[in-house]
Amino acid sequence: MNSQGKKAYFISDVHLGAPALKNNKERELAFVNWLNEIKADASHLFLMGDIFDFWFEYKTVVPRGFTRTLGKIAEIADSGVEVHFFTGNHDVWVFDYLPQELGMVLHRDEFKTQLGGKKFFLAHGDGLDKSDKGYLFLKKMFTSKILQWMFARIHPNFSLSFGHRWSKHSRISKGVTGEGFKGTNNEGMFIFAESILETEKFDYFIFGHRHILIDCPIGEHSRFVNLGDWISHFSYGVFDGNEFKLKQYNYQGPRGH
């Protein structure tokens, strides 16, 4: 971030196309408007997972929809903004289409970087809570190369329909997004971040996944951040080279369920 006035933006859990929500078109239009607003002063854009509610790529087939979003991200990347995409638990099956077609940098695991002299630890956050045995089993299954190969053998009409039906059973379908911060002694991602600080210092830990909006101290000189979502919070993070702030977009459209 050497250019004067340039900023890094962070966003997570947009869940574009979520079948349990009734305002998908309006939320996508708002998301594209936000992308259009930040492109002038952005040096980095970190898409921190679950941008899509479901995504699966065949070698020659990608999911229908999201044309406005993909076009705007490609425009931003083509302008020289460094765009990073983290796979979440809903869009874990992103493969090479987005990096090759849109120019994104793809991350399947946590990513460590420096911006403006500050150290950042970035991850979607799924799988970091070691006490969530059920989800850890599901993540192992979804990231299995064998199961991915088998799923790719199914015709897209059936596989994508199955994926959207699966998504309908998520917490979003029940009207639940974030469960609230459980406290520093019980929040799995916070405990994980504390364990990282034992061996390596970071200024910021930034996660998604939990759909909670929080920025709190961790350790002596670090911050723990969860980015919220674009279902109820319409939130994002911005780092201007000196400090990080959580902000909320002024969404005026219909609410989702």
Describe the structure.
By secondary structure, this protein is of the alpha/beta class. The chain has a single domain, classed as Metallo-dependent phosphatases (Purple Acid Phosphatase, chain A, domain 2). The chain is 28% helix and 21% strand. The chain has helices at 24-38, 67-78, 97-102, 133-142, 145-152, 156-167, 188-197; strands at residues 7-11, 42-47, 82-86, 105-107, 111-115, 118-122, 204-207, 213-218, 222-227, 235-239, 244-248. The strands form two sheets. Strands 4-3-2-1-10-11 form a six-stranded mixed beta sheet, covered by helices on one side. Strands 5-6-7-9-8 form a five-stranded mixed beta sheet, with helices on one face. Helix 1 packs parallel to helix 2. The mean pLDDT is 86.
Précis, in short:
Helix content is 28%, strand content 21%.
How many β-strand stretches? 11
Order of helices and strands: EHEHEHEEEHHHHEEEEE
Summarize the biggest pleated sheet.
6 strands, mixed
Overall shape: globular
Give average pLDDT, whole number. Answer: 86
The helicity comes to: 25-40%
In CATH, what is the homologous superfamily? Metallo-dependent phosphatases
Distance, first to last CA: 39 Å
* Overall structural domain count: 1
CATH class: Alpha Beta
**CATH T-level fold name:** Purple Acid Phosphatase, chain A, domain 2
Rg: 18 Å
CATH architecture: 4-Layer Sandwich
Ranges where pLDDT stays below 50 over 5 or more residues in a row are none
Structural class: alpha/beta
Strand content: 15-25%
Number of helices: 7
If strands are numbered along the chain, what order do they take across the biggest sheet?
A: 4-3-2-1-10-11
